[in-house]
Amino acid sequence: MSHASADSFVQSGIVARTLARRGRWRAPEILFWLAALASIWLLPDRHLILNEIAIIGLFAVSLDLILGYAGIVSLGHAAFFGLGAYTAGLIAKHFALDPLIGLVGAAATAAALGWVTSFLVLRGADLTRLMVTLGVALILAEVANQAAWLTGGADGLQGVIMPAILGRFEFDIFGTTAYVYSLAVTFVLFVIARRIVVSPFGLSLRAIRDNPLRARAVGIPVNARLIAVYTLAAAYAGVAGALLAQTTQFVSLDVIAFHRSADVLLVLVIGGTGYLYGGLVGAVVFKLLQDWLASITPQYWLFWIGLILIVLVLADRDRLTARLTAAWRARAPGPAGGAGPANGPHATPASGER
Amino acid sequence: MLTILFDGVAYGMLLFVLACGLAITLGLMNFVNLAHGAFAMAGGYVTAILINRWGLPFLATLPFAFLVPAAIGLVLERTLYVRLYHRGHLDQVLFSIGLVFMAVASVDWTMGSQQQFVTLPSWLKGRVDILGVQVGLYRSFIIVVCSVLVVALQLVLAKTRFGSRLRAAVDDPRVARGLGINVSAIFAVTFAFGSGLAGLGGALGAEILGLDPTFPLKFMIYFLIVVTVGGTTSLTGPFLASILLGVADVAGKYYVPSFGAFVIYSLMIVVLVLRPQGLFARAR
């Protein structure tokens, strides 16, 4: 009895150490965020598109939380994005409150919807989940379309005027305030998400993704974890939507359309799932591609998106992602890079003691 | 009232012909093929082009509306789909969404984004009065054609050697292969046949459903509802689901126009939550 508890104590010590090691910030990550910060000054005339990149990046990070970590395939993630956008737009239009309050409101409504619909998503396997998430998004889009007195229907929500952030920073036409604001929000939420996925909670999510049956058998409360992460991801998507509504000062049915759910899947798949940076990297690549292709063939951008999706899938995106993340780890110099292989032999005898 | 029921049944029959190919690929072969509507659109456009540019009569175009999508389906299955049967659902979703996007953009580029019209022969236009019920001639034509197809399909699946081979290949590909059944050839033929049927449905439905480049996206959800709600153990489930969906949709649009779409999506979610394996399927 005492031996078993001592053993589990050793084990939990190892788990804690492994998690702490994974949670450490590596040089490429710091470089990535420094580059993002530097873009505020280095690319002053690109702030509008950078703002969009930050928002799509946050949206993709939110999808990564449920797809990459919990293995829930969603075809209707735009539901939360759209709800957040409409919430923030309506708060600004009718109450003229500070944008930050709008963000909180959007996160709250989206989280509420996520919590309610998570019980539907828990039922059934992949296909049922696809259908249910798609159905929820379609219903919401229909509501937004029909409730024209509230949302403006097909004309969009007009007359949204954003007050200055914290009463000091006015939104400008060059998108500078917007970009700094979106980048700051994305960064803060990203750090939180990063902390969550290297916590025991995040570890249990991966266990569920890889084998739900076994996860249940080792005592992980599968349903409760899935509900929690789905709600969290919904809140994140809501904030992303709110950022879009606040920085463009306009909300249309486009925010909740099917193609937005498909786009965010593409963004995440370009960058790779299951390591959080995939969403951000994917957003950068996606927007640059869109910008470039739209300048060549403005109308048929959809064709190229389709082609990219097919090529990515046929080229075995999992292997591509694995290579990308391996390169990411390898580039991390010093103790972080060395600790990876060195800890392997340590871990093996510990688990062999049982 | 009876007219609505009649229109609903015609609509449902049409949905079944459109979706039954998907019932096999998604339901039986477990491949999430969101691009099914693209084949239906191909059939619709084949008919529209043959009638409007080449002046062929409506009936003469229908075989082409079947053959062209079937050929496209066969080529795509052999070259692309076959690589994805063993992948996860996410890959299949991404791949087929990509295919839909490409189809939408290509059709938009070659044919323009406007609505296409299919001119029906005069003997299919108009309505007749049967026992006090207004009956559309074209809709009765659809019901007849689709009923014949449904019966033929059921017979092929249940009575022929090909049908039993297909069922064996779906139930357990490994054992079927061990027994000398050429599983991949059977899958290819089935896929092509399902695509052809979708094309035929698209051609027949161009008049009722409308035909423009966004067709695959607009009706994707309907096909998926038919298959998931109908369940996947036989063709009877999807058939009943199509009829139900058709009647519900027509009635919903007639009685509560602003909530029509709403009712259907909500019903779908309720059904899926209560019976994830489908309304008419036995629990497994």
What does this structure look like?
With 354 residues, chain A is an all-alpha fold. Chain A contains 16 helices and no strands. In chain A, helix 2 runs antiparallel to helix 8 and helix 3 runs parallel beside helix 8. The longest helix of chain A is centred in the middle third of the chain and has 27 residues. Chain A starts with a helix and ends with a helix. The C terminus of chain A is likely disordered. Chain B is 73% helix and 3% strand. In chain B, strands 1-2 form a two-stranded antiparallel sheet. In chain B, a hairpin with a 2-residue loop joins strand 1 and strand 2. Chain B is globular. Chains A and B meet through helix 6, helix 12 and helix 14 of A and helix 4, helix 9 and helix 11 of B.
Share of β-strand residues of chain A: under 5%
Radius of gyration of chain B, rounded?
19 Å
Instruction: Tell me the span between the first and last alpha carbons of chain B.
Output: 38 Å
Largest interface: A-B, 41 and 41 residues
Number of strands of chain A: 0
Largest sheet of chain B: 2 strands, antiparallel
Largest beta-sheet characterization of chain A: none
Oligomer: heterodimer
Unreliable residue runs of chain B: none
Low-confidence stretches of chain A: 332-354
Return the structural class of chain B: mainly alpha
What is the overall shape of chain A? globular
Compute the number of helices of chain A.
16
Which percent range describes the beta-strand content of chain B?
under 5%
Short description:
Helices cover 78% and strands 0% of the residues of chain A. Chain A is mainly alpha-helical and 354 residues long.
Topology at a glance:
The complex is a heterodimer of chains A (354) and B (284).
Chain A: H1 2-23, H2 27-42, H3 47-69, H4 78-95, H5 99-122, H6 126-146, H7 148-151, H8 176-197, H9 200-210, H10 212-217, H11 222-248, H12 258-271, H13 277-296, H14 301-314, H15 317-331, H16 334-352
Helix pairs in contact in A: 1-16, 2-8, 3-8, 3-11, 3-12, 3-13, 4-5, 4-6, 4-11, 5-6, 5-11, 8-11, 9-11, 12-13
Chain B: H1 2-28, H2 36-52, H3 58-79, H4 89-111, E1 127-130, E2 133-136, H5 137-159, H6 161-171, H7 173-178, H8 183-209, H9 215-230, H10 236-255, H11 260-274
Antiparallel strand pairs in B: 1-2
